[in-house]
Protein: Signal transduction histidine kinase
Organism: Skermanella aerolata
Amino acid sequence: LAASQGVDLTPCEREPIHIPGAIQPHGALLALHPTDWALMAYSANASTTFGIELGDLGQRPLDTLIGDTLAAEIREAFAKGELDGANPFRTTACLPGNGVLMDFAVHSHNGIIIVETEQTTPGDLPAALPRTMVRLRDASSLAELGRLTVQSIRALSGFERVLIYRFDAEWNGEAIAEDKTPDLEPSLLGLHFPESDIPRQARELYARNHSRFVPDRDAAPVSLLSISADGGAQPLDLSFARLRALSPVHLEYHRNLNVNGSMSVSVMKHGRLWGLVIGHHRQPLLVPPALRTAVTLLVDAFAMRLTEVETAADWDERRDHVATHARLLEQMAGADDFVPALTSGPVTMARLFNAGGAAVIRDGEVRLDGGAPPAEVVLDIMETLRARSKEGEPVTTEHLAGISSRFVQHSGTASGVMAVYFGPDHRDALMWFRPEVTRTITWGGDPSKPVSFEAGQMRILPRRSFERWTERMRCYSQPWSPWTLEIAQSLAQTIDEVIVRHQRKLGELSG
Ligand code: BLA
């Protein structure tokens, strides 16, 4: 799981996707020098777009290409420092050469002004947008927020499928919300994909530039031509260019997925890439510029509500756990012996922490509750973990097999373990076990045949991805949130106090 944190880059991570030397053909690009506004580079389709002879392009000042007014606006925006790549200058204007209405996005990056333009039609933001925003504002859970987001973005954009893809701590991903046309099979909801499907440099770029639209996967990219004296020694950095041609490797992935038109819009939370809203279309799909803006606004609205609904969900889960914890304390208070009180009362400790099972170890004796390895293995795990813990500090692991390979065979019940210690010299313990994560995935069909897709290309790559993900996640459990440890420790502390009180009572009796 640590592969992505190392310094070694995989071939996928090595592709310099920010300098492809080409753009997608549904627009044209001009790169200008900010001091004299001279043209440094242009896309090979620029002469057609601007209605100007190719040979003349380099000689023409910006004003004659895009009009005096727009050129002046861009210069002013640049002077005010308002050509930020993440928040480009946007406008529509008719080209002086041919009168065609164009959408413009202009930004400056690494000291170069990049003007991108594509044909558009007059129109306002979609009328449905305000109502959708209100619905998103009122959503009370991640599930509801996600569902509303994918539904409204699909309705707005026309994609056949819209997904919310959430990254985990290791950058694997899961499709947590989906809206799709009924004849698009299979559903990808709940499927997991490995970290490598969206390599590191892509994630880093997506954290800075928040959207990508590919209207036509198979459209031949248009080369960038340089007219600077040095022949363009530096390839033009398209990190923030909306027309950037996407990686051919990734386009191949989409070919295998039977996806043609696509989009991905970044969901940012606390400055970090939390996930993507992904759009799929089997045919080419050109989402007009104004609708693209609407889509990105909705994704931003989703992102702004995220922290709130996730925090609320976290609190709900915590509250349930606090209630269970309280029940366990009550059961212990009413019992002579706390071990059965924890493991065989109406509520047992395995109910906590989405664990498959739990155990109490006291004086070398093991009491199991739910799905757990055999008692002697539980003792072995306890000793192994204690050897790694300082002064009886609690231990959690989501990958017990990584601590010792002899536990691999128990990953079905104990891929992850939490142990909190109590008693004299911390020799006793409460333990919780979590199974291997792949077994806890909900699949529509037979879990042993997780992707029973029919023949055909579409079905193959996600399945391989899933298999790679499964391989990576072998012997891993879900990670333990910090608050689970707090509750477990509080339980162990109570037991310590109970024991101490009991011993004091015994002392009083004998004294
Ligand atoms: C990029 N990979 C991406 C992107 C997505 C995925 C969403 C963002 C680009 C976009 O907007 O389409 C992956 N797409 C998915 C997944 C689903 C989906 C998981 O629809 C599931 C629902 N990809 C690989 C391998 C390599 C790879 C093995 O699977 C490398 C050899 C590369 N993926 C790769 C690269 C990019 C990418 C290089 C960057 C594309 C770019 O922005 O230029």
Notes: The first strand starts at residue 22 and ends at 23.
